Amino acid sequence: MGNQHCEYYESNQELTDSTFNKIRRVVYDKSGISLGENKQALVRARVAKRMRSLNIATYDSYINYVLSETTGVELEYMLDAISTNTTHFYREESHFDLMRTIIRDWAKDGLRKMRIWCAASSTGEEPYTLGIETLESIGHDQVNAKILATDIAPSVLKTAMVGEYSEDKVATIPDHLRSHYFERVKINGDYIYKVKPMLKNLLIFRQMNLSVTPYALKNQIDMIFCRNVMIYFDRTLRARLVAEFKRLIRPGGYLFVGHAESITAFSEGFKCIKPSVYKRI
Ligand SMILES: C[S@@+](CC[C@H](N)C(=O)[O-])C[C@H]1O[C@@H](n2cnc3c(N)ncnc32)[C@H](O)[C@@H]1O
Description:
Elements: H1 17-31, H2 40-54, H3 59-68, H4 73-82, H5 94-108, E1 113-119, H6 125-138, E2 144-151, H7 154-162, E3 164-166, H8 175-181, E4 182-187, E5 190-195, H9 197-200, E6 203-207, E7 221-226, H10 235-248, E8 249-257, E9 270-274, E10 277-280
Parallel strand pairs: 1-2, 1-7, 2-6, 7-8
Antiparallel strand pairs: 3-5, 4-5, 8-10, 9-10
Helix pairs in contact: 2-4, 5-6
The structure holds S-adenosylmethionine.
S-adenosylmethionine is lined by residues 31-33, 83-87, 91, 120, 122, 126, 151-153, 156, 209-211, 227-229, 258.
């Protein structure tokens, strides 16, 4: 992803208020991400990398290029560079403790088919964590489970689909689970952890823009994890997302949002069972 190191690609060019506003508008219209006025330096640094690789001298020429480029590829690169993709295995771990309990209870009640959606799945750490916990909760043979992992950015989806992580990335996975679900291979002197097929086969990856509703999902969903993306959306879009989640989650199913996120203002149809966890009623 473009976000973590782009700050080093400084441009000498000025990003004027009017060009910044133009970029903000495009980002909002195409992804729903609301960039506050205080994000000018961030946008300047992150877009500079794309300008450099395209040899484009000014921010205004760059955004005009994005808008004129009919394939939409550069728009994807720009959104990719601007959005934040931070994630890690077992992020906000208490959610997975609760998920285990819920899945075990469902399995005890005879539920064998489970559909889980990880919306805004970034580079895959979150949906793979969901996969590990699903398999650990109900056993490999007894479950017909699928985890749908979606994100707006093709580059992060590609990383997720490849399913290879460096040693530091897998450090938050408990040892016994890491050795069970990942194959450790040495490549050019470094250890890489490859997701094993038994885990990978549980996941389905798809590009999907959460700001475009209604979502084209046919089946009812048992659990949705939509974490750490709504913070980038405004209230109107957050309400639209939650209405869609309400439509898609079956009664008795769950919605998990990020610890810093709250949907209490528009959570009709859900019961908040603890902060950031909502049960569909
Ligand atoms: C901060 S990461 C969160 C990743 C993961 N859910 C977690 O909690 O660790 C935010 C992700 O949201 C994605 N994203 C941003 N806008 C989006 C949109 N409109 N539709 C779908 N995904 C979006 C970004 O590409 C990024 O991968």
